[in-house]
Amino acid sequence: MLNRDDLMLEEMEIVWEKPETLTDVKMHYCPGCGHGVIHKILMEVVQELNIQDKTIGVAPVGCSVLAYHYMNIDMQEAAHGRATAVATGIKRFLPDKLVFTYQGDGDLAAIGTAETIHACNRGENFLIIFINNAIYGMTGGQMAPTSILGMVTSTTPEGREISTQGYPFKITEVVAQLPGTYYVTRQSVHNANAVRHFKKAVEKAFKYQMEKKGTCLIEIVSNCPSGWKMTPVQANKWLEENMFPYFPPGDLKVDGKLVEKKSQPQK
Question: Which contiguous run of DSSP H or E holds residue 57?
Answer without folding.
Answer: strand 55-59
